[in-house]
Prior knowledge:
The complex is a heterodimer. By secondary structure, chain A is mainly α.
Amino acid sequence: MTDIWTQAALWMGLALIATLLAIWLRVATALSEIVIGTVAQLIIGAALGSTLLAADASWLKFLAGAGAILLTFLAGAELDPVVFRRQWKQAMLIGLVSFAAPFLGCAAIARWVLEWTPEASWLAGIAMSTTSVAVVYAVMLEFGLNTTDYGKVVLAACFITDLATVVGLGLIFAPFTFKTLIFLGVVVVAFLVLPWLTPRFFRRFGNRPSELEAKYLMLCLFGLGALATWAESEAVLPAYLIGMVLAGTVGKDHALIRRLRTLTFGLLTPFYFIRAGSLVSLPALAAAPAAFLILLAAKITTKIAGVYPVTRALRSPRQEGMYTTLLMSTGLTFGTISALFGLSHEIVTPAQYSALVAAVVGSAVVPTLIANAFFLPRHLLNKTPESDARHAPAVQPEAAARRNP
Amino acid sequence: MTKSILLGYDGSDSANDALEFAVHLARAFGAELHVLAVARPPEFGDDVETSAVIENSRRHYDRLLRGARAKLAQEPFKTHFQVVVGHPAEQIVRYAEGNGIDHIVVGHRGHTLFERWLIGSVARQVIAYAHCAVTVVRQPS
Lengths: 405, 141
């Protein structure tokens, strides 16, 4: 056990450094964990041997995998089902365009420009197609658009984009056999039963220090995850879908979501993101940086080509539409999940994996830098009359404003 | 004539100094005082974590503004309190434009080199883009 505790301490030390770095630089902890993982593997690997980090130890793989599953579940649980039901047609259209443009564009570039195998090219398309819903949500809050029809449609569309990504990841690479049918059958039954059963079960037995809710949810996630991998699919597929179907019940329980976040961010995701970073080969990246740069440029270009015209069609002002579009290019979680799936299933080589993860990290940084450099803070000022009208309610002081005695 | 003052407030020492200055100003002019706190998402964000940061930050600023509200309860002028999400400078300037503010008061505090490179100082950006008078309250050294 001494080896395991030593490795666990080393990984938690790296996680702590990554968190401090994230606080200092004001960036997502996931981003700094990936970078720390890459640098640590390079330095520790060179100085003390590549086995010290032991990124392939089974206990570490379990923690990392559980982190990806819970994180995906939490991402799905952020859906607003009421808005989604009301706006699903428009959201479906925008979400699928936002998925299809980078998916097909990046897959084509990987196949015919980078000359990757067909399977590796499809995986590149999947990894590059994602959008971070939470980042777009932050932009909508910033514009005060989260309560408008436009904002709600865009947010619902981001869920469709990510859903298309996880469905693509879960089904494109899975051989269609009777196992797939059983998996899909059980998933359908679970989706019908869980929204009915879960709130009743929690009301009857929940809200105790024994954290029954967390155990119940992890049973569902790990159980369906096991079934997914048995069918040679991917465990994050049912996790995201369970998150979406429980968004109206579990997702509304803020105290429970906070406790799940503590478990996920405090223990599990550091192992996931640091491991994802540690598998990146900097020498391979440095030897052939073109793949990373081409994929990054392809992702940003195809996202803009797919999403920007839609924002304009929805009568978003030009600068605001471009700002939203640029920030829709971020997608660390599902990007790294897709890339790691490709590496672990030998769909991509370590060098291709390195290029994919670097492009995913780059897509979280570069569009934001461009958006901040060219649109901040001017994108909120010098507004057109159209955007003025929509912005007005967002800057009204709260109703509690009062005349003091 | 100053009728509406906006204070950018983050609960720091310099913001508390700025609060005191803004209160003096509001008393002197009989102006209404708007207190604005800005919850900032990470510069480069990701799923789930960004929502968690915003939620946490909003709770933090709601608590801070409750404290400021209690502090100003006995003042004779009208007060408004608001928490918004985004980059502090742009949200302050935007709020000022949208609410007919004619004087902005902000504190001034040190930023890391990285933050200065990335977004510039909040005070400097407010000065650059505000449509009205801006006072930057420096902490006594």
